[in-house]
Amino acid sequence: MVKYHQYMVGAEQALDRVLELAVLMNDDMTRTLAKDGLTVSRAHLLWVLRQRGPCTQSVLAEQLGVSARNVTGLVDGLVATGFVTREPHPTDRRATHVSFTERGATTTAVMESDHRELAHTLFADMATGELDHFTRSLGDVLARLRTRLEAEDE
Amino acid sequence: MVKYHQYMVGAEQALDRVLELAVLMNDDMTRTLAKDGLTVSRAHLLWVLRQRGPCTQSVLAEQLGVSARNVTGLVDGLVATGFVTREPHPTDRRATHVSFTERGATTTAVMESDHRELAHTLFADMATGELDHFTRSLGDVLARLRTRLEAEDE
DNA sequence: TATTGTTATACTCTATAACTATA
DNA sequence: TATAGTTATAGAGTATAACAATA
What we know:
Two copies of one chain form a homodimer.
Chain A: H1 2-35, H2 40-52, H3 57-64, H4 68-80, E1 84-88, E2 96-100, H5 102-123, H6 128-152
Antiparallel strand pairs in A: 1-2
Helix pairs in contact in A: 3-4
Chain A binds a DNA duplex through helix 4.
């Protein structure tokens, strides 16, 4: 009985730390991006654009998991602030072709190196074995969370 | 050189998993709370109210780290959906006294047990030693993130 | 003079539904 | 008939600034 209780306390502490980490990561991203005139959602779109290359809004909507209407708004904002351009699609006249501006490409490249630098900041002092354990445990937790989310999908 | 590179790959993988975990935790909370007619922000307010007991909006604003205006909106929503009440403050006639309704108290209690159940789901299969390692590593990462955020505060 | 909360205003993210142009 | 994107509409979270009531 005592053992079980102790165990639960440990699990709750782990969950609390995971939740705090989620909040702090979000705060950090929000602040860092704001310095570049970006939001988390818009940066996410830039991220997809970098991986996919120039593409249509419907591709962006699918990759981001948001509505077409939402992508219209995000692209509006990114065009207004000079990160991307909207041009006619070469072959499909219904669609728009979203591409980086010079500024968008540069900023996204900086974001990527900042991302690597953050990884270094957070995990540099961790011994290799410890990091491996941590990453594996994270993978297990992720797997359980995904299972839970799928189960809720019904 | 190779070792350093390998190391960085490990750190980046860890960061990517941390970020994915943050996203999935948020999705899970959003969906679970929606079933009760709540949002993450409103649930956060209820959480503070449970810890603090009935209190003024200014206390809630400070605890949540948001503006007074924002708290007005959150409490408006929670009053409209029947989770809390706004009453005159016993001693300070400028302030309002925010308290749980029956429904609010019950729902928050359920949230708390769901929280424990989630901890169990995510960490039940983890060996005690592994969980300890994981929690300690999380603590280290949190400490570094906090340091980083404070440094940015200038 | 300082504090509490609201009104006024504005921006962002998000969604569904109706509609236009095109495939 | 189906798809791509926009307009229309709506709700939620967030902020600052001006203001009223009270301390």
